[in-house]
Amino acid sequence: MWLKSVFHVLGVCLVTACMSVTGAMAQSDPLPSWNDGAPKQAIVDFVTAVTTEGGPDYVAPTDRIATFDNDGTLWSEQPMYVQLAFALDRIKQMAPDHPEWKDKEPYKSVLAGDLKGLAATGEKGVVELVAVTHAGMTSDEFTKIATDWIATAKHPKTGRLYTDMVYQPMLELVDYLHSNDFRVFIVSGGGIEFMRPWTEKVYGIPTERVVGSSIKTEYKVVDGKPVINRLPAVDFVDDKEGKPIGILGHIGKRPIAAFGNSDGDFQMLQWATSGDGKRFGLIVHHDDGDREVAYDRKSVFGKLDKALDEGPGLGWTIVSMKNDWKQVYPGQ
Amino acid sequence: MWLKSVFHVLGVCLVTACMSVTGAMAQSDPLPSWNDGAPKQAIVDFVTAVTTEGGPDYVAPTDRIATFDNDGTLWSEQPMYVQLAFALDRIKQMAPDHPEWKDKEPYKSVLAGDLKGLAATGEKGVVELVAVTHAGMTSDEFTKIATDWIATAKHPKTGRLYTDMVYQPMLELVDYLHSNDFRVFIVSGGGIEFMRPWTEKVYGIPTERVVGSSIKTEYKVVDGKPVINRLPAVDFVDDKEGKPIGILGHIGKRPIAAFGNSDGDFQMLQWATSGDGKRFGLIVHHDDGDREVAYDRKSVFGKLDKALDEGPGLGWTIVSMKNDWKQVYPGQ
């Protein structure tokens, strides 16, 4: 009997040992889609430094906050922001109920597929587009609309679902940080309620760790049922100087690491990397015209100019998609 | 040698078994400061129902969101909100640099300890008080001021630190929810940056799970150093209808359980408990004049009237501090 117990115990321990070995093997290269080189090494060195107990750069788990931009950092933003594609699709879906749109901007340009015409309508046109496609419904209704759209909408060039147009190396980076007890937040200029329906499934980042731009809302009880209505007025723009403000408002702590790809992320990286102790800033440079799109200083979406010039001097890691990434999208 | 290994292994497993027993014992009554009765039973029944896999009311951990009011729900709000005591103390600390305050309201009343005089200055006086004591400094500076104050400030009646004026039964409730994979948020009318310096230490709730009222801020680079300045203008009031709005903005999911003590929490409980599936709402009724303070319908701070009348009909649990709590404060 005791021998049986001993074998049982040994069996359990062998299984445990086996699991440890598997764990160690899985950990041997946490970033398999990254080529060996300075950026990958800088990431691993940083994470090792802040997680080494007793080391000079140790940071307690409670302060391991990392923030990621979304468009162009975690997923594709070309040929246009995915949320803009969503808004244009919404206009097309809603058009049959609005015959007057055929002769009225910005709808006329949208329905004609004329992006230059849309751009010519300026801020007024874009604000109207957002109001019509993102407001005038309850929060629950908008979540359903966004959820349904993202489930089937495809990228115009690759034909992949937008949620498959995420960057495999960045998914590995988010997982690597999570497995080292970081709390990872998205801090995006995109609409907070547009992202939340899918970030948990796609990135493993729950709704409360998504910071974004927002429109005003109101709480009302209608026929005994409480609803939150989305109003046609901008509440907060989570871009440039807005990113540190959004971080303070939502997180309440300064990140020790920040990841972006455009000048819209400059202040977020500046805020994160200028704090005390070990810090990390990373900029994804879209220089891979073959596997993705090569763009930076002149791009309408995700313009990268100042951060490209000043980043290296500020100690930020600049990632060349072309040279530093083995693979761009998952499952390739 | 193998015998030694076996003993080692057995030793480890005995220790593990011992730890399991301790764990089970600790779990036998997760709410030891609650008297047996309907409220305690309702809490345990709810948590059991939503965590029982395969049961009709099961809720996946990802959706186990609980929100707690702070003032009067997690800690004392009598004879005045702690944050108001902080503001009054700040005025007294700053007064030597402002000799003109002696003849100017609302400072005159504050310095004379005349709360009625302060109240008579109305909203204008309170807004000025908030502006002077909560703005005009960086976010880091304010955090330090609040941190230093809360470390030593004491309740005028009990002489205890304010952070010891928390309710032991509610601390147990927060822990009980945490141990059942709930994500617990504070959703308070109090200032978000006033609470964040101490909520993790006192409640085990990290900064990003604190939702509160806020003033406007701006991001600036001063002499090469980025700062976030606190501006003398209200940004968001997280009370009444503001609570569901704050919850949507910060959490992005509807809570399945909400806990409050005043009419300011009505909409939060209404929003949480009117969702689909199993829901839970709880109101702490301050009816214990001996161990705490008895107040409800007529109170300046934490007025409880509508929620007391309508709560039971909405299925909310009303907790009598007098009858349902064995103990009010920790360490008694």
Overview of this protein structure:
The structure is a homodimer of 332-residue chains. The first copy, chain A, has a seven-stranded mixed sheet, with helices on both faces. The longest helix of chain A is centred in the N-terminal third of the chain and has 27 residues. Chain A has a domain of 212 residues: HAD superfamily/HAD-like (Rossmann fold, 3-Layer(aba) Sandwich). With 332 residues, the first copy, chain A, is an alpha/beta fold. In chain A, helix 9 links the parallel strand 2 and strand 3. In chain A, helix 7 packs across helix 9. The N terminus of chain A is likely disordered. At the A-B interface, helix 1, helix 9, strand 3, strand 4 and helix 10 of A face helix 1, helix 9, strand 3, strand 4 and helix 10 of B.
